[in-house]
Automatic annotation (TrEMBL):
Protein name (Swiss-Prot/TrEMBL): Merlin-like
Coiled-coil intervals: 518-555
GO cellular component entries: cell projection; plasma membrane
Keyword line: Cell membrane, Cell projection, Coiled coil, Membrane
Residue sites binding a 1,2-diacyl-sn-glycero-3-phospho-(1D-myo-inositol) per the record: K76, M77, D78, K79, K294
UniProt xrefs under SUPFAM superfamilies: Moesin tail domain (SSF48678), PH domain-like (SSF50729), Second domain of FERM (SSF47031), Ubiquitin-like (SSF54236)
Length: 594
């Protein structure tokens, strides 16, 4: 087996000498990158190539990690890539990861790509339970992760079930509660909807700001033993060195800030740390392997350098990056305001269009009703005209009969009978004829009045018909729809002026500005305290909502430890301050006695 392996390695070496290059695959949190490297390349050459490919300038946080035997190691910048003790089978695989973590993500992470890489790595560590996260914080972090992926919540787009394929919570949290996937999605969506108005970058930053307060965030753990042989855990992070009980990775027993450490060294498996306080003993412990000691030393030196660097004035490169970041942030804010204004105008235009469409439908209904009223008016006018004509004919007929009666009366008078009886009869007939004539005259007058009334009704009907026609013409002459431009340039001339110049971003820290700067810092502190208070209230509310569904028997030891710390009011920061109040000498002595 050994001879076969040696022959394979010899064959790979021969091929590399012939080709003068070797292939490398670099796995990032976003994608896999493939490179062809020269044989003489050092770790720095490959690392800088990866950073250039990613557009990354904040390179001091990152490194190239590779697997070796039962542990991991980081590529050394000043050593040839092929000289490292690692598998040489091509392609050689490296993982581009954050090696060191910032103390405060909001202050230190400048580039968007840096922030995004940290966000992806921390999210993966939380989901894979490499970093312990309490259930209520897991829900809130999941809502920010969804916002970073999908943007603002839209109920018309993000309907129930849209998170069914997403990995959002650690399996430990899911198993701890009697809750269905739909119940978890509902609670995450409620938090997600509250983040409306934030950009995706801001959502990632809020995620990191919450995650950096988790006890295991940014801590590298190593198994060690003190002089008594007691098994302990050494934690290395951005603040210093911490000693843990193996059963409790949340709360350290002892902590040593980097500013209290003077020198770090190792000899074989023994590691020695000299405190700044010369009266204190050298802090010594043993690790399981020499390779582990090398890794611990790398992490200690790197974290110590960054710790001291944060407390000095920023280099010109960092100042330039921060200036560019501020400019880019200002540009994005202006672009965001412009887009919001365009969106507002678009929504107003759509509302105006809907109003016009409703008004058009209303006018069409009114026109239809007016048309029907006009038809009814025309029919009524025709009937009235017909009735008036009949009444007029009847009046003429009655007038003719009255004239005939009058002629008959005159004839009777001329041919009156001489006798009294005939005279009496004639008088009676004359009286009847007169009465008939009078009655016929009255009837004729009534019929004439009726004809006049019908003519008046006809005139009114025709006037109503004329008004209905004019109204119909008025409705049909109106424009039913006026198009509203939705162009991106359709901003009002009196809108806000977003002209931007470098003068707005120039900073001159003179002595006269110190008072103003102090006031701004104080204001930022107040705002931070208010945000922290709001965040804590939000986490407590989430915890209360899901507490009744918790299965106590499924709690892990870390869950129990976290609950105990919460009841005591112990946080990551408060515990660190409490431990560092002790003298260095007493802390070293306590470590040796563990």
């Amino acid at each position: 087996m050994a001879s076969v392996l040696a022959s394979k390695m010899g064959l790979n070496s021969l091929r590399r000498k012939q080709a003068k290059t070797f292939s490398v695959t670099v796995v990032t949190m976003d994608a896999d990158l493939e490179f062809s490297c020269e044989l003489k390349w050092k770790g720095k050459d490959l690392f800088e190539l990866v950073c250039r490919t990613l557009g990354l300038r904040e390179t001091w946080f990152f490194g190239l990690r590779y697997d070796v035997k039962d542990t991991v190691a980081w590529l050394k910048m000043d050593k040839k890539v092929l000289d490292h003790d690692m598998p040489k089978e091509e392609p050689i695989v490296f993982h581009f990861l954050a090696k060191f973590y910032p103390e405060n993500v909001e202050d230190e992470l400048v580039q968007d790509i840096t922030q995004h890489l940290f966000f992806l790595q921390v999210k993966t560590s939380i989901l894979e339970e490499e970093i312990y996260c309490p259930p209520e914080a897991s829900v809130l972090l999941a809502s920010y992760a969804i916002h970073a992926k999908y943007g603002d919540y839209d109920p018309n787009v993000h309907k129930p079930g849209f998170l069914s394929q997403e990995e959002l919570l650690p399996k430990r949290v899911i198993n701890l509660y009697q809750m269905t996937a739909e119940m978890w999605e509902e609670r995450i969506t409620v938090c997600y909807a509250e983040h409306r108005g934030r950009t995706r970058d801001e959502a990632e930053m809020e995620y990191l700001k919450i995650a950096q307060d988790l006890e295991m965030y940014g801590v590298n753990y190593f198994s060690i033993r003190n002089k008594k042989g007691t098994s302990l855990l050494l934690g290395v992070d951005a603040l210093g060195l911490h000693i843990y009980d193996p059963s409790n990775k949340l709360t350290p027993k002892i902590s040593f800030p980097w500013n209290e450490i003077r020198n770090i060294s190792y000899s074989d498996k023994e590691f020695a740390i000299k405190p700044l306080d010369k009266r204190a003993d050298v802090f010594k412990f043993n690790s399981s392997k020499l390779r582990v000691n090398k890794l611990i030393l790398q992490l200690c030196i790197g974290n110590h350098d960054l710790f001291m660097r944060r407390r000095r004035v920023d280099s010109l490169e960092v100042q330039q990056m921060k200036m560019q970041a501020r400019e880019e942030k200002a540009r994005k804010q202006m672009e965001r305001r412009r887009l919001e204004r365009e969106k507002q105008l678009r929504e107003e235009a759509e509302r105006a269009r809907d109003d016009l469409e409703r008004r058009l439908i209303q006018l069409q209904d009114e026109a239809h009703m007016a048309n029907e009223a006009l038809l009814r008016s025309e029919e009524t006018a025709d009937l009235l005209a017909e009735k008036a004509q009949i009444a007029e004919e009847e009046a003429k007929l009655l007038a003719q009969k009255a004239a005939e009666a009058e002629q008959e009366m005159r004839r009777i008078k001329v041919t009156a009978i001489r006798t009294e009886e005939e005279k009496r009869l004639m008088e009676q007939k004359m009286l009847e004829a007169e009465m008939l004539a009078l009655k016929m005259a009255e009837e004729s007058e009534r019929r004439a009045n009726e004809a006049d009334q019908l003519k008046q009704d006809l005139q009114e009907a025709r006037e109503s018909e004329r008004k209905a026609k004019s109204k119909l013409l008025e409705i049909t002459s109106k424009s039913p729809y006026s198009p509203v431009p939705l162009s991106a340039n359709a901003l009002p001339p009196d809108g806000p002026n977003f002209n931007f110049s470098m003068e707005n971003l120039s900073f001159d820290f003179k002595d006269t500005d110190m008072k103003r700067l102090s006031m701004e810092i104080e204001k930022e502190k107040v705002e931070y305290m208010e945000k922290s208070k709001h965040l804590q209230e939000q986490l407590n509310e989430l915890k209360t909502e899901i507490e009744s569904l918790k299965l106590k028997e499924r709690e892990t030891p870390l869950d129990i430890l976290h609950n105990e710390n919460t009841e005591k009011g112990t946080s990551k920061q408060s515990n660190f301050k409490k431990l560092t109040l002790q003298s260095t000498k007493s802390r070293v002595a306590f470590f040796q006695e563990l």
